Amino acid sequence: MASRTALITSVLLLLLVVPSSSSYVKFDLHGNIYPGGYIYVSMKIGDQVYNLDVDTGSILTWLQCDVPNCQGPCKTWPQQQPLYKLQNDKRVPSMDPLCVELLQHPGQPGHTCEYNIAYTDGQSDGLLIRDKLTLPIARNAQHTIAFGCGYNQHNFKPGQTLPVDGILGLGRGSTVNLAFQLKKENVIKKDVISHCISSKGGGFLFIGDYKLPNVEWVAMDRNANHGHYSPAVLGELCFKGKWISEKPMKVLFDSGSTYTYFDWQPYKATVDEVIGSLHKSLTKVPDNYFKLCWKGTKKFRSVDDVKPLFNPIFLIFRHLGYPSRKLSHY
């Protein structure tokens, strides 16, 4: 899925969608980055509770689902919950405004809304549908929302049972995302989301107007690419007291990304500095996924075991007094 972020600092980010005012919905976050690899919320959709991978880098919320008489390919990853069973009266027409927004196409009379969405490590094919979402507010109030019925997944860890049943799309700039739909339903008045992800696992997610005191707030760029959140100021990389990025960089925050990605120059500079300062106890070993991998004298059971062996990288926003972030989990 859009991948999961290894860059975790327990900082609360205010991710601006569109201005407005008032209430919020709070969700507990479950899971962890390591060793689980997923941060997710539990939501009741229809008559079943599902776990959704929190993704601020994509706009569509979707569940894996069972489509009657599916005309293949119809492939889903193994999950802990039963698949959502599609009922034909839940389908959204292709000329519905949300489908037109999602596909950027006017649609055709008599057709249902079908989509395919590409992620960094896979693709999902599905149908746009509507059903009841039960929210943890006001005696578990129910509201009808549009979301995806993903009946065919490509390259999403086949054969492995995952703790998540789909994706919670919170990307900015679209009427399809959950925050905008909840605003339209008058559940929230101010279209913002905020989340705090603990390095120990878990955390919380707020959709709506929630202001936590004593928190470092970083304004988001309203002109960032569709679906993405990006600070209004540029970031720079610092390693052992010196700048290693040639110029300030545009940074995207993506809760659905497993790893932190750099362009070629900052990537090469980071690799050179890390290799040049390796702890003597580390030995290079081959790995099927990573080009660079080291092992220690004993098994690492958590990221905390590795911290003393690597120097931290700092992502610093020098302009307008914004704070730095220590990228200790790289």
In short, what is this structure?
With 330 residues, the chain is mainly β.
Give the averaged pLDDT, no decimals: 83
Instruction: Give helix % range.
Output: under 10%
Approximate shape: globular
Element order, helices and strands? EEEEEEHEEEEHEEEEHEEHEE
Low-pLDDT residue intervals, each spanning 5 or more residues? 2-22
Task: Walk me through the structure.
This protein has helices spanning 97-103, 178-184, 264-276, 303-306, and strands at 13-18, 24-32, 38-45, 48-55, 62-66, 84-85, 114-119, 122-134, 142-154, 166-169, 191-197, 203-208, 236-239, 242-243, 283-284, 294-295, 313-316, 324-327. The model is unreliable at 2-22 (pLDDT under 50). The strands form 3 sheets. Strands 3-4-10-5-9-8 form a 6-stranded mixed beta barrel. A 4-stranded antiparallel β-sheet has the order 14-13-17-18, covered by helices on one side. A two-stranded antiparallel sheet has the order 15-16. The longest helix is centred in the C-terminal third of the chain and has 13 residues, at 264-276. It has 330 residues and is mainly beta. It is globular, with a radius of gyration of 21 Å. The protein contains 4 helices and 18 strands. The relative contact order is 0.21.
Main traits of this protein?
32% strand; 330 residues
Blueprint (SSEs and pairs):
Blueprint: E1 13-18, E2 24-32, E3 38-45, E4 48-55, E5 62-66, E6 84-85, H1 97-103, E7 114-119, E8 122-134, E9 142-154, E10 166-169, H2 178-184, E11 191-197, E12 203-208, E13 236-239, E14 242-243, H3 264-276, E15 283-284, E16 294-295, H4 303-306, E17 313-316, E18 324-327
Protein name: Peptidase A1 domain-containing protein
Pfam families: TAXi_N (PF14543)
Family: Belongs to the peptidase A1 family.
